Amino acid sequence: MADIWEWSASRIAAAVRSGEVSAVEVTQAHLDRAAQVNPTVNAIVQHDPAAAIAAARAVDAAITSGKDPGVLCGVPVTTKVNVDQAGHATTNGLRLQRDLVAHEDNPVVANLRRSGAVIVGRTNTPAFSLRWFTNNALHGQTLNPRDSGLTPGGSSGGASSAVASGLCAVGQGTDIAGSVRYPAYACGVHGLRPSLGRVPTFNATGGDRFIGAQVMAVSGPIARTIEDIRLSLVAMMAPDARDPWYTPAPLDQGGAPRRAALCLAPDDMPVAPEVTAALVDAAERLRDAGWQVDERPCPPMRAAADINAVLWMAETGYAARDLIDREAEPESQFVFAQMVRHAGAIDLDRVMLALKARSGLIREWEMFLRDIPLVLCPVSGELPFAQQIDIRSEADFDRVYEAQLTQRGLPALGLPALSVATGASGTAPVGVQLVAGRYREDVLLAAGEAIERAGVLPTVATPL
């Protein structure tokens, strides 16, 4: 029989609700697993075991009194240190923010609590959540439990490592340029970037963000099964008036034909043979499940990535340049300099033109997805990178940056995207990315489940 820390979120919720196990037992099993494994992977960097046990007892008490604690009844989850959780510092991987203690929960954290989830820890992120690698001077480096020589991804590398290691069943992550999808890919689990406005979010510690983050940054779940992604999304998407971008769209809309476009190399991005093979295999799995899949180019991705760069660097250059200098961490300073180099000089004219072009690109993508509701494309052009390769040289950074084209492009469009683990090449996980129209996460989940059913579920990894 599998250990409790290997169970899926859906199995845990059902078992706790039925009385097969208590929420306290489940929580303690995950805390014990973390005590054993986390010193190696360094995925969880803030935790309060007593508070976790108290939350689990509250779930058990609710069940005893005949109440339904929620869809994530007793499920151990983690939150990311760049979102507010009352009583904890929202460090964002920064020494400068080690004492920035939140007094209220971010809406996504509040929604997880209201769903009956038990928060067992807070997970690492690179400084400023700026990289596809997870390391910082405050919390240290997070390792990939499947291969310590590979990046766990970033910026939600702590969340993906925690899920893959069995420290939690669900990890909350954030995504403005791939920070949910790439870590899930790198650690061999699943990760969903929801549509803009699907999941409410707001950090009172930081206040309102600039327009780039407002139209591109989202919170989403990382998990080991697509069913758990669905369950977590239902929990996270409850309304909250603090987020004016929140959109109360129904999750299951139906009516979409099972048609998909297989786009092997968007805008001629370089793609490794192993990535191509994973895409072709996923396409066959979809066909076997009754989907019509045709190879064809998708709408522009590089133009969307350019918009992302302009909007993100306009915000970062204006609001964070001083913080980057004061934090004085060489890694983030180098990465920021490379991103500025790629974005070029940014002024008001470029920002205005980028926002104008964004509307046209969204229209083009939505028209495409109206007829073909699903795009199957790479998560990354390469297998997960070696640890810290992005800071070795400008050439290495450029290689990483180009491989992450779809990670950078899709957030500018506000579209939902799902990273689906499909297997491995040696010790390196491989997977594919699914893209659908706005608020059509149901299409992604249906396709993801079809791909998952024809393969092998991601397992929990124990780092050596």
Automatic annotation (TrEMBL):
Coiled-coil blocks: none
State the superkingdom: Bacteria
A GO cellular component annotation here is: endomembrane system
Q: Which InterPro entries match?
A: Amidase_CS (IPR020556), Amidase_dom (IPR023631), AS_sf (IPR036928), FAAH2 (IPR052739)
Query: Which part of the chain is the Amidase domain?
Result: 25-445
PANTHER family, sorted: FATTY-ACID AMIDE HYDROLASE, FATTY-ACID AMIDE HYDROLASE 2
Protein name per the record: Amidase family protein
Organism equals Sedimentitalea arenosa
